[in-house]
Amino acid sequence: MPRFPEPLSDHERLKLAKFRTARLIDHICGLFQMHEANVYAVYSGSLARQIPRSYAGHAFNQFQASMHLFEVIRLTALWDAPRVDRESIPTIIKLIDKAEIFDAVIDNTRAYYLNDMLMADLNPVEDPLLIEAKQHWLQSYRGERAQMEVGRTGERFRAAIDGCTAVVRSEQLGAIRSYRDRHIAHNLDLPDAKLGEQAEVRRAAKYGDETWVLEKTVEIADNLHLALNGSSFDWEGSRDIARRCSEQLWSNCRFDIPTRPRQRSGDG
Q1: Across residues 223-227, what is the average pLDDT?
Q2: How far apart are CA 92 and CA 106, in angstroms?
Q3: What is the pLDDT confidence band of residue 85, given thresholds at 50, 70 and 90?
Q4: Longest C-alpha distance within the chain, in Å?
Q5: 254: exposed, middle or buried (Cβ count in 10 Å: 0-12, 13-18, 19+)
Q6: Helical spans, DSSP H, in the chain
Q7: What pLDDT digit, counting tens, does each position of 108-127 carry?
Q8: pLDDT digits over 49-81, tens only?
């Protein structure tokens, strides 16, 4: 059986890549919510400082670990290896990493700015010579804009492919992927080499690795969305909404937990 995405035509590959890229934005917006919640749950001391030496402290530690792990699980899923049923960046890159598809994207970009880009309608009651001059200017502007956007699209296309390769090979992704795999495969007796799809891990995961991978994910997703769908997305606006939602909840959380008494020496 041919390996993915070989059975698909170039048209099907490009169409699927466009769809998966749009879906990628939804996944990242969900990650913003999780990441901003972890600013309070994991990184800020505003909650931890309210937990005294108590049995509740054990529960809070578990809460922190679970919140962090869930963000890592969601994030690393966007970097899983290419498969027809996956909405991951490597899947999208596998779909578009072909000269004919690159040419099709460039041709589509050029055609849009030459023919379809929306412009203000010319006033039909104006002087015919003025209308002709405006049409000449419009044609010239479209040509210049098309050339500029073709260059930008090519740069974004290549930046997305190169960026994906760099992240897949990074120690940060390798570390959090191993961390993810060891936790979700905790009930399986597997050798280390079979845990995850990237066998070599240079070091253990550290807090902050997920932040680095998330930033690279946004950067690559932005290039993909602009190159393939010709559209930008308000990433900072989405982050700001997630930040404000988390702040409203977690900054207003108050714990009133009794301190566990210290056991005296000699007590049974």
Answers
A1: 97
A2: 17
A3: very high
A4: 104
A5: exposed
A6: 10-38, 45-48, 55-77, 89-96, 99-111, 128-168, 171-184, 209-229, 235-250
A7: 999 998 887 655 555 555 66
A8: 999 888 899 999 999 999 999 999 999 999 999
Confidence of residue 200 (pLDDT cuts 50, 70, 90): low
Return the amino acid letter for 70. F
Closest CA to 249 of 26, 44, 27: 44
Instruction: Compute the residue count for the chain.
Output: 268
Q: Which of 65-69, 227-231, 263-267 has the lowest mean pLDDT?
A: 263-267
Cα–Cα dist 96/185, whole Å: 32
Query: Which position has the token pair 């982050």?
Result: 239
Peptide linkage before 124 cis (omega within 30 of 0): no
Q: Are 32 and 25 in contact (CB under 8 A)?
A: no
Give this prediction's pTM: 0.85
Residue 189 structure tokens:
């007796």
Our CA angle for 181, 186, 189, nearest 5°, is: 100
**How far out from the chain centre does Cα 136 lie?**
42
CA dist 136 and 119 (Å) reads 14
Q: How many CA atoms lie within 13 A of 31 on its CB side?
A: 23
